[in-house]
User: What shape does this take?
Amino acid sequence: MIDLHTHTNKSDGTDSPRELVNKAISLGINVLGITDHDTTSGWEEAAQTVRGEINLALGSEISCLTDDGVSVHMLGLLFDGKDEAMATMLEETRDGRLPRMRKMVEKMRAAGIDISMDDVEAARPIGATLGRPHLADAMVNKGIIKSRDEAFQGMLNNDSVFYVSHAAPTPVQAIAMIRSAGGVAVIAHPFASHRGQILKASDFHELVSAGLNGIEVDHRDQNPDERRMLREIALELDLVITGSSDYHGSGKLNSLGEYKTAPLQWEKLESQANQRRVVRA
Assistant: This one.
């Protein structure tokens, strides 16, 4: 079983890296991608937990913005964690999250919603990459909403009046950086239309030219028609087809291993990194 897209409490998940690896082992997952938002801070703890048959594909989910303002998430896997340029890009992207959060909180307060940055910080685990899920958790804690899912279907959706984008690389820049650091780039849930604006089929040609390796096709936020279209695009452009849970612990409904990547597709993806970096026992 191969699940290449998961999160820990180093970003917006609720499990520690150790807890996530242990859960994956108990489920029989043999390749686990750990892809916290804009950080590699969970890598060491996860690697220390490896035992038995499980392999780790360490990476990060990089927040991107197209030139016309569409939010895109790029999974970088198997890159060199010591690459300085990559580390700088991740740090700069994380740094842009604080002013963005302040603006979103200001918009909500102006609309009469009783929320503050102190509330958000209280909901964020120590050291975690700041994100909208922590604002959602703060609103749940204060009884403003019932769940993260409710928040992302409404007030925190990309099309909401409260949404604020943040400084981020373009998808092309992120792909180039991932490949330069020796890794592979897989675009995450690119047709998840309920999240807001999405890419067009024609956009993938530019991403392939930049070095895109794969498309996350099977994901709960993409309906059957969207998955079918993405599968056709991937086959046409000779891109790896992945399926992933996007697991966040109790922060989302997604179950670990609910969508999987086929072994042959994983082998193809791993072979495109500049060296073998899978962590084994």
